[in-house]
Amino acid sequence: MRKLALFDAKPYDRPAFERCAGRAGIEIKFFETKLSRDTVSLAKGFDGVIPFVNDALDREVIDGLAQQGVKLIALRCAGYNHVDLQAAGDRIAVYRVPAYSPHAVAEHAVAMLLTIVRRTHKAYIRTRDFNFSLNGMVGFDLHGKTIGIVGTGRIGRALIDICRGFGMRVIAYDARPAADVEYVPLEQLLAQSDVISLHCPLTEKTYHMIDETAIARMKKGVVLINTSRGALIDAEALLAGVKARKIGAACLDVYEEEGDLFFEDNSGHILEDDVLARLISMPNVLITSHQAFLTQEALDAIAETTIQNAVDFFQGRDSENRVRCMEKAAEPALSR
Ligand code: NAD
Asked: 232: Cβ–Cβ under 8 A, 6 or more apart, which residues?
């Protein structure tokens, strides 16, 4: 029987993975610890590992996996920017789950947008304290506003449909335009949008695509949403933009340095990251801890595809979910 080790296991991961692995005749062992240089020895005796999105699979970890005889890295996420594909080479096959529920992420982006615009996060706290004052609660209509969507893949498209339902004007930026969307250069998108939402992957080209220069181009009062990858935004530049009142609000489901913090209860600890602490302290910054994907539908789909990827690999079947090193080189050449 094939054996897989799932790292960074959370209670909400287990039911779907147990069900899918059981159906496929695969034994699965859950480790609560992250997959790292310190824990890679736990992979000994397993055919494959299922790491988490924030487990850094650098050369050292991958060398360790190869030494333990591991042949498969079955990512349970879409992005693979945390994996050294060159180090994996031909020694270890890397698979991903390209799509699980684009609606989960798009709907979370909208949930954050409506929350920040209509101040429901403040209202919830106020009314629990029997404070029914409306002072400071003035929002604005989304109807008639312009949203700029960066990246119109699966999630970006789902968001476009939702925003059109709100009666918003949608403009977009993507190297691979689709037919029925108004595409503009990134500079124009930044300058024209009342709301900007990021849905492109993190690559060398998109790293810090929202920096001081990009923020300077934006409308005063813009609402910035990032449910994609933290490092798309230069967090220090964002904080400066919020303090300067240039950025009207920020909704962040991801954060540049989230790796050691997100997904864990740090409530008893002193937060070392001053930028994050300052952002959290802002009344117009809403932060969730990388939970945009977290719906039951998405969890079921993630487990289903991850286990199917493993089955395909073990049975020597080709799969478009396999990530190869050249995919990084084949990324579209995009200018900002
Ligand atoms: P996708 O591959 O379907 O779409 C990505 C789009 O981005 C493509 O159309 C691509 O052409 C475009 N793109 C690439 N480089 C670009 C650039 N420099 N500028 C503008 N557009 C560019 O991916 P998806 O399923 O829509 O997911 C988008 C991202 O969302 C993922 O890369 C992942 O980082 C993130 N994500 C986050 C969560 C979460 O829980 N917060 C969950 C899933 C995915």
From this structure: 198, 200, 202, 206, 207, 208, 209, 210, 226
